[in-house]
Records
---
Amino acid sequence: MKNAIGMLVVLVAAMASPVVAQDYDDETSVARVAYAAGDASYQRGDIEGWNGLRVNTPLMTGDSIYAPPEGRIELEMENGAVVRLDGGSQLDLLNSSGDVTQLGIDEGVLDLRTRGGSRNATLEIDTPSAAATILERGHYLVDVNDETATYSVIRGSLSVSVDGQQLDVYEGESLELTNTDPPTYAYTRTDSSTPFQDWCDRRASRYERSTSVRYVNEQVVGCEDLDEHGSWREVNEYGRVWVPAGVAAGWAPYQSGRWIWQDPFGWTWVSYEPWGWAPYHYGRWAYVGDFWAWVPPPPPGYRGPAAVMSIQPRYAPALVAFVGGRNWGVGISVGGPAIGWVPLAPTEHYYYPWQAPPRVVNNYRNITVINAVTVVNYNTFATEPVRPIRVAPAQIRQAPVLGPSASVAPTRQSLVPFAAPGGAAPAPRVRAERPLVARLVPPPKPRPFDQKVAEIERTGKPVVAPVPKPAAVGKPFTPDAPAPAGTRPRTRRGGRPRAGLGSRRRGAGPGSARSHRHDAVVRVQGRHRRARDPGARRQPGGHPVGLPRRKERSGRQCPAHPRLPRRAPTRRPGLTRALAGGPGVLPGA
């Protein structure tokens, strides 16, 4: 047993509230890196340069990731989507906010599976050839190279918008767009028997077989990793809790990792433990008997202790309370002031930097546990991984309580959790005339850190709106909507965007009697499906009608983001097998 070292009681002013003071900014969504193999790298939207990408790196709107030829990456989104990238693929998070997720891929292979989230959410995949909108939960594959862009539906349905036209792809079908003059399209049967797809299936089966997903709210990201690294136990005070396995004596939560700065959340914990996402960004920690236990947000319909039922399934940068600061000295051996943090226990309140603190008494119960408070040198808190220092319990009792925000200003060293692969930045991407085609207006790039740091130092708080959001963001392009750098609107020939929001009529897919309901998608006249006879692909005069050459396509052309070297053009097996009707040329609108 560990001995108590006293009880710290803190009174914070404002209005009373539940465990989470109020809904956090619904326009901010964070993606988790769940897997990264090879020298994977990423670029934050608010700084230049590429850095190492590892498990538990948090990603937001404006960030880009790259899987090297020998690597692979898996992302878990807050909306329930799981994105996996094959080697040689680059992905841009054009918009990851609220109910809109907009991904950009200009080279590589992307596997997308949806397993939850809001039914009103919009998910769009933008490529240099077209913009694809996911119409229902399912399993999708996008393969982009210099010659073709292929959209495959393993399960579900999607709609591909290109040059004012809309092509539907249904379960078991693939749509290939070629970069010929004029561009052509062909429907083929889906072929998912590739090593990459086998790997994706194995990764997906972890969630399907997971025991932990039964005990945790479905909005919690990363809970399938708990099965391999701990066990579930029943305790009287909190019901079913998760206990990590293989931790050393004296271990406590929030000790293996480092702090990085992310607006609008501020100081964000990045764990070096492979399971360290769900237990550090959701729920609470309790010391039960002689072990630490994670108390998760319960699943819908749960009936149990009030302390558990009040825990909301909301992402937080770290569920801790900070103590100490620049005026707290703990001894000569530390070499300066110190700062520490303690995990929040059930019933203890957390509020976000943009919220007023609630008027509640936080009895920080975990501070009474030996080693529960992790203390580091104040001067290294923002610049390097955690290296705990030993502090006497009596000194911890005297430490000033800072609440959920640390009084430390960030620097450029505070922005990324891992160094670049091999100690050097990855090769820069090649700038090319390959802007992405978008149906919805993505937000501009985030404000650069160098432009925000003075405001952060002045206010002591993170920037609430790090990504500018004009009124047009998240809506279909209109003639007066500006196109952010690296994207262009999906247009008709002549440069006029063809977009309008509405419900699409229920209708049967090609060769299928099933009907699909598609809500809140763009209504475009002149929808085209697979041609049933060769004559259907040409105008009456026999002249094919297609898209202009890529370099001549009308619409706003914007500078592309820097690009990594492209992989060699490849064709996946089966793309030359056409269904009845064969390839078709996209007619004009």
---
Amino acid sequence: MKLNALKSVAFVAALSLAFAGCNTKVEEGKDYAVLKKGQQVSGAMVGWVAVVPSFPVVKKQGDWTYAVLASNNVIEPGQDGWVAVNPSFFSQLSGVALETPPVGSEERWVMKPEGKSVPKEKAGWIALPYSVPQVEASSAKKGREMASIAAGNLVPKEMHGWAAVDRETLSTLVGKFMLTGAGSRTDKK
């Protein structure tokens, strides 16, 4: 009798350990979790959003770099604190004509309720807390929009095709624009 009870306790303990790793977990050093088929939504991730994995495309222009944003891109830690600029204003500042990236998957999956299994078609998707950049627009000059971006932000569809640069590069671009571009004109034409 004691042997059967001991076997039952050992079986329950082994089963508990096996299922302990089935909840979704944040990737080490990342702000998101990569979903695996059959994992369960953990309580800490209820309300998170899952998207097809996509990240901004980084390009080089002379001695500086910029990232082209697409809808549902996940902002990476290396782009934390960068500033996104709408395409027309970025072109005015930098002289770079942006090519609009192709539209990827617009689908988002809200993770709930706790304990729900990840569907097989969502395996490999990235899950993260829902956070989008806040766009600020100039009240004096139409079409001048910017947004600070942070690691873990999701790029909303309204910012599809925008460019992002680090603050130092933005400062340099704005300085040149104010000295030589349309920003240097003092007349009111």
---
Amino acid sequence: MVHFIRTEQGKTIIECTVSASDLSAAVNLLEYSKELLTALNKPQFIADFTQLNEIRGIYWGSNPDSGENIDRFVETAFKSIATKYRYEYITD
């Protein structure tokens, strides 16, 4: 499954691909930079998206033996940031 955060215009800011046993996040630098320029609280915006970009390490560092579903972990994190900044959270 792929998780996306997109602008109202449908431009992807960040995506995270989840397989059966791993995950990988990627930021679209062009769209991220455009959004950063208009962000009211730039340091918080940077921190939030840095956390999403590092979601693989956060997941594996949290407690991989807990059995927490990877997709659910990513969904929770992505939905939280999407809601905070009024972006769209989409899966494919």
---
Amino acid sequence: MIQAIIEQLTDFCDCLPDELTEEGAEELIARNIKEMIQLVSILTCWTNEPCETLLNSERREVIDVNAINPCDCKGGVMDFVPFYSPFDAGSFKVYLATLNGVHEEIEELDADSYSFVSSFNVLKIDVAKYIKQDLCSCCPPQRKLVIAYDAGYDLLPDCLLPLFCDLLHVIYDKNKCDCKACVACDKGNTEGEIDYNDEVSPKIGDYLNSLIKNIYTDQLGIVSLCGCDKPLWGIVT
């Protein structure tokens, strides 16, 4: 996936630093692109798991089964709206997790117990046959539904490529600013010296934040999950 994104960016961006495009620079550009994607993923609330990004991967959400009433008009059929988008409608798998004492038992629901309804953009899940036998119990077992599905981007959205090209330049400049890149000054020679206490002195971190917040906020909103409502019963894991 990263290789495809490298090709996408090198084809789109007019002028990348020579070090990122020369032969043998695959590891360097891949490292910078991964850092860039991680940064954007954090800013757009895709990182609910460590190192999770907006790239396509399996996501999981958890629902408390005891919150579902099999005797209402829906007869135990619930509507599940995925938190992550875009998602692969053919990738859904649903599991029933039951706490038996101190042990957890996992059972995959039959494929005919759930289906994605594209017209309503929801996953319909029929849990009636899995929970009706517990209705007369004064202490129903603790059960949860675990919905797994693939969601995210295989490539960077075309409309965000200008943003990613700009960010790639900034992140590359940040990463190459090490001690070896600094030019030593002769003692007593202050020509060209930069006053880093000067409020107007450019700083890469400040520039990066300004670039994202002031210029690309609306564009990032296209992929952002920040502020999106969680499912009614679900917990994103």
